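A favour, since you know our structure tokens better than I do. Would you make up a two-line entry for one protein for me to read? Write everything out right here, beneath this request.
=====
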Amino acid sequence: MGDTGYVVLRGRVICPDKALEDGYVAFEDGIIQSVGKSSELGRWPAAEYIDFSRPGYTIFPGFIDIHIHGAGYYQAAHGQVAKLARFLARFGVTGFLPTLASATRQEYLEWLHEVKAAMAQVAQVGQVGRDSAGRGRDGRGAEGARILGAHMEGPFINRLSRGGMMEERVREPDLEECEEYVDAAGGAIRLMTLSPELPGAIDLIRYLRSRGIVVSMGHSLAGPEVVAAAVGAGASHCCHIFNNCPYDNLRKEPGVRRPGIDEAALVNPGVTVEAIADGIHVDPLMLELALRSKGLSGMVLITDALPGAGLDDGIYEMPDGRVIKTRKGDGIRLKDTGALVGSGLTLPLAMRNFMQWMGLRDWEAAQLVSGNPARVLGEADSGFIEPGKRADFAVLDKDFNCVMTIVGGEIVYERG
């Protein structure tokens, strides 16, 4: 953005606890320097000004998707991760975890190497700082959303609650196998989803936490006792709430229902939960139950999207090779059986849905797509518009369409 390094955005600004209706945010070298009302704005002659003070425009903190398998024409695998990063910038996403569901050992190892390579390929504007030509420290301009690491949704998943995963690709925990993944990734694994009731899962959770990896419980038949043990071992997150197990398994006897992983996660203060707000995967009333249980700070909105998300209706392919179809107003389904396997959501749409269903203000809902996912991952420098944080922004119009995306102070998307 120019050659001075100092940039001021003017307009309606989403702050952690309010919206500044006539505000500004100023940043330099990819770091926010000041935020306030436009009436308090001094004048920096050398600064670059970008004015969004028009009706319906809002400057949000950049969005973070911690659970996404693909979008557009791209998968979160097979050499397409860097392209996915560029595509997601069209929807205000400034950081994400490419996610791979249960796969073979070799497929996971190859994928982890791919994610590492993509993290190096996509300009890490988050290693903030620019040269006099306005380029990142590595000499390149920004190329898309930051790849924050890998989310392994598997392979240590209960076959009875595997959802859309292929049965032959799920298995019981194996510490040696997991160590191979961690060593191969070289720090790239940020999140792993597993079924905590499986033999060896609790020890595996302790190992993962010792390596700084966030553990998510999901695709599980676990009850409250197992969830409590998993949390005691270090698990802190729950995969797509209300999409984790066949509810027939929660019947204790006719007319009696026992609590499962979702209920246990909702009442445990040490667990954050993620949700797919498309109205297909989870009824809005159930999402309200989750919000009332966890509060604004305990929920994260995800897309759990697949290739085809963000595009017109069509036929696409999953990372595991199965053919899927998309249709507006529906989830993404297998072409041959119609089974629900993912969503066609984008994060702005998820936030808009949640706002409408829950009656939230935009600065409240923004926590679920920005600040909360940043906290889940321990990204202390991201997620909020306040001094000292990264200059990551998503500018939306009144219809929640993305107008501009800024990552580490660099424009990575601008609507034509």
Q: What stands out?
A: Confidence is low (pLDDT under 50) at residues 123-141. The longest strand covers residues 18-28. The radius of gyration is 21 Å.
